[in-house]
């Protein structure tokens, strides 16, 4: 179209196109719109402004949807085709009598110009969640009511709240009965729950560009059908509504709606409100505030943004896999200092490698914790595959009271960087530990007491094997202790299965394993033994419930190691590593890295392939520093 004149980005004032959406009363009736509203043809015009002097406008955030069944839009007198999703959204957004000013990517950006696609922004955003229904309309009215109540009484939802602080919310509702009455007055509790589920699984919440637009916008309004809700009211209502469900009626926990909201971790202690999918999006917006204050974040904030967004969004969606990176650049306060400029002319491999290389060079090796061995990805082994929804490493415990420092002895230093001669090779100075042997895997699909028993037994067997070595890496052997187990062995037996972490008393965060972990370990072993002996169900149930206050804090960390393998190295070090680990792989201590890594010799070269991170008992606090010579390490 002639309207898409090329923008000159070296001009002092950056231009922007805005859509003047014609009111319904002025539209033609020559076409019929598919959706809740039908009748007149959508129409409008594009105008170009300098961004700094543009009139107030609203950016539309919506899911493009299928390219099939496109609808007509009369733009500057010419008919263009837009997706059905966009047509339905614009039909709901347009006013009956007044013209509206919008920024809509599909119309305001020349989709054939990659540079324009890289420059998208709006201060005020209307989030289109999709068409409504009678039940969702009722839910939106209810959320608006409860949200305003909570905001008025000064009790906005806290992003760090926990589902398990039930007494706090019971007390809150006792002091403010209008809150629970707003919910309990409904005679269709199940339908309300189902409507909330339906609203929170809509595709908007899982699209990576949607998250970026939502996080950076100054003013946000949610719209579902014709119902509107401001961000603070909507967020407060959704979070507090879920708290009310838990605090007022435990039977609600059994509904499909509730179980989906809690998400895949619903049955695992240690997961609270902040882990619910919709709340993770809210949490990222709160975290974005840090990027606006240069005194509150370091050069590595981009790493944290990329990592946490990709990990928390279990299956982040983007039509173009390059958007998995570019959509997040605006969330990081240090993206400009890293000189990462969106460039859609580059390949996925080039973009992912460039970004990860720059982040590692500036902030260290933490991003390697997201790497999983996948030779078919087409990426260097040290580059996480953001196309796949990254898996949280059980070794990455940012909330630990005492962090791991296997390769740094508590000192943080940066300096790893891709070679100038080959950006696909990461150069790092490291220390060799030794070769590992791995056998058993704690599989995802068979995580039960029987599998737990085999997992723990394999670790104990490796530890006993280490203790019987002529030179045990952990010190005293059986012979030195006159046949009794050495003291370190008792501690290692409960630390290794959980990679030396446990849930704290409130299940909110993880801490370094303590003496209470041993009690949890012993109780869990007893339960597993009863399960093996086919003891009566009642007796096993009583033991499970009676000992829950002990093993309940131990189990989440053990569960976090599902899919990983116990190993023993040739020198007797015992730990757990990635499920892809094989006999002959090296357990490697890399300088300044917090944890060991498992490496495999590359085929036909002196370089190594990264398999994944590992936990090894007795090396996690820098014990091996100074005991091995430094070598140059190249990862491919």
TrEMBL record:
User: What's the protein here called?
Assistant: Heterokaryon incompatibility domain-containing protein
The organism's superkingdom is given as Eukaryota
**Occurrences of domain Heterokaryon incompatibility (ranges):** 57-212
Per the UniProt record, one Pfam family is: Het-6_barrel
Q: Which PANTHER family match?
A: ANKYRIN REPEAT DOMAIN-CONTAINING PROTEIN 39 HOMOLOG-RELATED (PTHR24148), HETEROKARYON INCOMPATIBILITY DOMAIN-CONTAINING PROTEIN (PTHR24148:SF64)
């Amino acid at each position: 179209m002639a309207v898409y004149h090329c923008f000159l980005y070296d001009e002092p004032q950056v231009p922007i196109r805005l859509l003047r959406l014609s009111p319904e009363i002025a539209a033609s009736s020559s076409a019929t719109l598919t959706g809740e509203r039908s009748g007149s043809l959508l129409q409008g015009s594009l105008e170009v402004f300098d961004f700094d002097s543009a009139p107030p406008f609203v950016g539309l955030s919506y899911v493009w949807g299928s390219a099939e069944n496109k609808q007509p839009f009369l733009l500057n007198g010419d008919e263009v085709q837009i997706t059905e999703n966009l047509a339905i959204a614009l039909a709901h957004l347009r006013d009956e009598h007044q013209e509206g000013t919008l920024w809509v990517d599909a119309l305001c950006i020349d989709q054939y110009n990659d540079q324009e696609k890289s420059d998208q922004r709006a201060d005020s955003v209307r989030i289109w969640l999709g068409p409504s229904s009678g039940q969702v309309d009722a839910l939106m009215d209810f959320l608006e009511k409860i949200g305003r109540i909570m905001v008025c009484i000064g009790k906005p939802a806290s992003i760090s709240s926990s589902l398990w602080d039930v007494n706090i919310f019971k007390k809150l509702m006792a002091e403010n009965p209008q809150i629970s009455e707003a919910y309990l007055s409904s005679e269709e509790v199940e339908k309300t729950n189902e409507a909330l589920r339906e609203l929170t699984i809509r595709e908007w919440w899982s699209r990576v560009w949607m998250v970026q637009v939502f996080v950076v916008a100054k003013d946000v309004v949610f719209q579902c059908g014709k119902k509107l809700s401001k961000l603070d009211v909507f967020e407060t209502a959704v979070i507090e509504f879920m708290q009310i469900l838990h605090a007022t009626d435990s039977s609600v926990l059994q509904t499909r709606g509730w179980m989906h909201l809690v998400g895949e971790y619903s049955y695992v202690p240690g997961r609270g409100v902040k882990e619910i999918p919709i709340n993770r999006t809210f949490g990222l917006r709160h975290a974005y505030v840090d990027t606006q204050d240069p005194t509150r974040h370091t050069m590595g904030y981009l790493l944290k943004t990329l990592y946490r967004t990709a990990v928390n969004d279990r299956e982040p969606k983007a039509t173009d896999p390059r958007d998995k990176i570019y959509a997040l650049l605006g969330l990081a306060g240090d993206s400009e200092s890293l000189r990462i400029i969106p460039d859609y002319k580059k390949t996925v491999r080039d973009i992912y490698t460039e970004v990860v290389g720059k982040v590692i060079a500036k902030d260290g090796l933490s991003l390697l914790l997201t790497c999983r061995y996948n030779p078919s990805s087409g990426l260097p082994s040290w580059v996480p595959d953001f196309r796949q929804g990254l898996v949280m490493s059980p070794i990455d415990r940012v909330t630990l009271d005492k962090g791991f420092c296997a390769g740094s002895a508590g000192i943080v230093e940066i300096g790893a960087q891709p070679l100038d001669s080959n950006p696909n090779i990461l150069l790092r100075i490291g220390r060799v530990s030794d070769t590992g042997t791995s056998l058993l895997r704690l599989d995802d699909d068979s995580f039960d007491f029987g599998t737990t028993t085999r997992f723990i037994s394999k670790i104990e067997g490796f530890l006993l094997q280490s203790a019987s070595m002529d030179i045990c890496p952990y010190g005293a052997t059986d012979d030195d202790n006159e046949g009794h187990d050495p003291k370190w062995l008792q501690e290692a037996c409960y630390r290794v299965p959980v990679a030396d972490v446990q849930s704290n008393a409130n299940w909110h965060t993880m801490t370094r394993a303590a003496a209470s972990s041993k009690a949890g370990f012993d109780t869990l072993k007893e339960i597993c033994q009863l399960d093996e002996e086919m003891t009566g169900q009642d007796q096993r149930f009583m033991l499970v419930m009676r000992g829950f206050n002990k093993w309940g804090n131990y189990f989440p960390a053990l569960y976090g190691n599902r899919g990983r393998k116990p190993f023993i190295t040739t020198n007797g070090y015992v730990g757990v590593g990635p499920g892809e680990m094989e006999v002959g792989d090296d357990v490697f201590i890399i300088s300044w890295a917090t944890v060991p890594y498992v490496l495999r010799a590359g085929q036909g070269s002196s370089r190594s392939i990264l398999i994944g991170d590992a936990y090894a008992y007795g090396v996690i606090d820098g014990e091996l520093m100074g005991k091995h010579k430094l070598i140059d390490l190249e990862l491919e």
